[in-house]
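Structure ticket #2291
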Amino acid sequence: MDRILEERFESDEKALQTKTVISKYGQDSAVKHARIWVCLRVIYGLARRGATITQRDIYYQLISHFDDQKQLNEVLRCIAHILDLERHEFGVIACPRGLVYGCLVFRYDDIRVDCSIQRQLVSSVVMRSDFKAESRNASCILVVEKEGIFNRLVDDGFTKRIPGILVTGMGYPPLYVRALVHKLRNQLNIPVYGLFDHGPHGVAIHLVYKVGSRSMGGDRYSVPDMRFLGLRRSDVVNLNLATHPCNRSDLRIAKNYLSKWVFFQKKDNIELRKEVEAMAESQTKAELQALYEISTEYLAEEFLPGKILRREFI
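Resolution: structure written out below.
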């Protein structure tokens, strides 16, 4: 890491010796310039020492320069783009947030981790070049939006009914979780399905996995052939699931997707567009937990196996 970064800091005129590059990301505010430079100073120090720091720790170290964590994260995304590196490559890592369980063994640095024994935290080890995933019988990877649903599927023995791998990013996924799903898809060559709430945020989380981070114009850890299992509008109607009114954030996401994002204008994405249109028209959403009103075992024993075996996905 230190050699790569020293080359960037000492030799890459486009990235650091030219103020126009920095200006591109802070041209509307001198404060943004200052924030980028104070972060670069910390990152350069990490490179010289070969050290790492979490995003949360760097926020507290520079707390006088930022109003909240979100501002720091935005600056780190800018720096990643300037340096043409992922955040972990210049020493800034996320706190582990994500879980994996199922028919999976992964190896790195002569260490073997069996994910069928217990739930495993997703951490920076997935970014290692020697990270290797193995599975003798996994038929699919199921990405679950919520930790609670993930845990319920583990406890209900879902991976015994359909041998597979369960992953959750606990909402919007961090880089490590997206990298894990991407590597599992490529190394194991099995399909990836997504299970999310019926709502604009559920679709948005699905798309973070599928096409990458919109704020960075996509990234190397996208999973373009990821399938959307639901919840779909037809599930809500046919199963008479409880719904809730969309809030302003939900409606804003739906409006932006339908009016501004070219992704939803492509022929291959018409079915997903129809889901967002239904949400916007009804102004309602439904949570995965609503399925438990049918029966506590319905999700693991009937809903998901049926969807996967009948290929009912987008």
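Closing remark: The longest strand covers residues 140-144.
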